[in-house]
Amino acid sequence: MAVIAGCGFGGPARAPATVEQVADYRYIIGPGDSFQIMVWQNPEVSMSVTVRPDGMITTPLIEDLPAAGKTPTQLARDIEKALADYIRDPIVTVMMGGFGGPYSQQIRVVGQAAQPQALQYREHMTVLDVMISVGGLTTFAAGNRANIIRSVDGEQQVLRVRLDDLINGGDIEANADVLPGDILVIPETIF
After folding, report:
1. CATH of the domain at 73
2. By CB count within 10 A, which of 29, 53, 153, 175 is most buried?
């Protein structure tokens, strides 16, 4: 049995310390995000908005404009087009305030984290950043049996991460990059 385990038969691959990051990562607006819309020289149509669960926003003069799935700049251009019927040559800026992003880009932490939750991905984010955000491990966590579930080209990969070694042992080599959409699963210790 030890020989089979030593060969790595059937087990998840160890998460690489670094992965190829998302090329030209740009923040994408998602449901629940909030931002300020500034229309130059038109304060009456400038306002703060929150993206509805259906991905739309409503502002003065514009009803049900799709916002989710766009960058802030793309949304600003869409607002300019919609306002052009009412305002001559509108200049719009979208300034993000509250971040959540689309669900497909959030990092989800489930299992024996102190505060399991979904986190907004940030460029160059690592497992250590994730663990700080969720308050570390519970007393009953089997941190060295944790896995990252990652979708690559439509296929699921399961990558082993050593959270106990990283957090409690200070082994910085156990740190690994995370990518948008990763799911970190932290199992419970078997007594």
Report:
1. 3.30.1950.10
2. 29
Please answer whether residues 70 and 57 qualify as being in contact, where contact means their C-beta atoms are separated by less than 8 angstroms. Answer: no
pTM, two decimals, is 0.72
CA 29 and chain centroid, separation = 11
pLDDT digits (tens, 9 = 90+) for 147-158: 999 998 889 999
Mean pLDDT within 49-71: 95
Q: From the centroid of its chain, how far is CA 163?
A: 20
| Phi and psi torsions of 20, nearest 5° | -65, 120
Residue 52: domain span? 34-98
SS3 state at 98: strand
The CA-atom distances, in angstroms, between 31 and each of 13, 103, 139 are 34, 8, 34
